[in-house]
Design goal:
Elements lengths: L6 E4 L2 H6 L3 H5 L13 E6 L12 E3 L2 E12 L2 H19 L5 H15 L4 E6 L2 E4 L4 E4 L4 H15 L5 E2 L6 H11 L6 E10 L8 E5 L6 H8 L3 E9 L3 E6 L4 E6 L1 H4 L9 H27 L8
Antiparallel strand pairs: 1-7, 1-8, 2-4, 3-4, 4-5, 4-6, 6-7, 9-10, 9-11, 11-12, 12-13
Helix pairs in contact: 3-4
Amino acid sequence: MFFRNLTLFRFSPAVADDLSRLDEALAEHRLRPCGPMESFSRGFVPPVGRGEEAPLTHVVKRCVLLHPGGEDKILPAAVINDELARRIEHITEEEGRKVSGRERKKLKEDILTELLPRAFVRQSRLPVYADRANGWLVLDTSSRKSAENAVSQIREALGSFPALPLAPEEGPRVLMTDWLANGSLPAGLSLGDECELRDPATATGAIARCRRQDLDSEEVKEHLRNGKQVFQLGLVFDDRISFVLGEDLVLRKLKFLDAVLDELGDSPADAGAEMDARFALLTLELERLLAQLETWFSLPRPQDA
């Protein structure tokens, strides 16, 4: 259950205390199947197990795992448009008249009404955990939209959930450019093998993307000397976690290295015990990484009024 991407929010100590009622609050927002005439449904699904009785949170120490989920009806636009064209053609041939814009709209609504109950349903879930001790909300996605939607679901369940996007006091782009240009990385941090460099002067400036490349090479440094800045940078933390850090402070391509995986040992026979072991290891490793991220970029935790 290791996360592959990290989008981060922060919350205050008072909000952390309020999360103690999360399991009770989510019970009224359990995901239900889409109705015949619904195009989507949103709610929470159990992180472990299935069924109506399975809990909607999983707690290890001060970290709470939850899964905002959803069901979406799949109705491809091409299918709707093909059926609409067929019906318009039929009216034109049978009645010898053109179909007005208003009638076209009504025909399309009728098609949606007929096809929606028969549409395929796509299920989704987004792993999220809240570190109540340190005020981090960690979402396994690189999509800002998906992250915001998940936070909105939590906010709706709790009634209030003032989790805030990261507000770095140190500019990520400037700091990462200095790391790459001057080799001045913080202790415990080393370069990976990919980066994205852009000319910040214009929105359509030149872009250089490097993958599987030595980032200390002259070719990369020449781009920097020509004024490009780092927008994404591959990094390795303590030889335990590799990731690509964006100037938006989203961590992509997160990977736990052998030094971490070896600590798991043999998988427990019980699924619940295995979940506990993996979640505990995940949160412990990320607690160390996020503490350093907080230091590098001066990421203040919101404080209570």
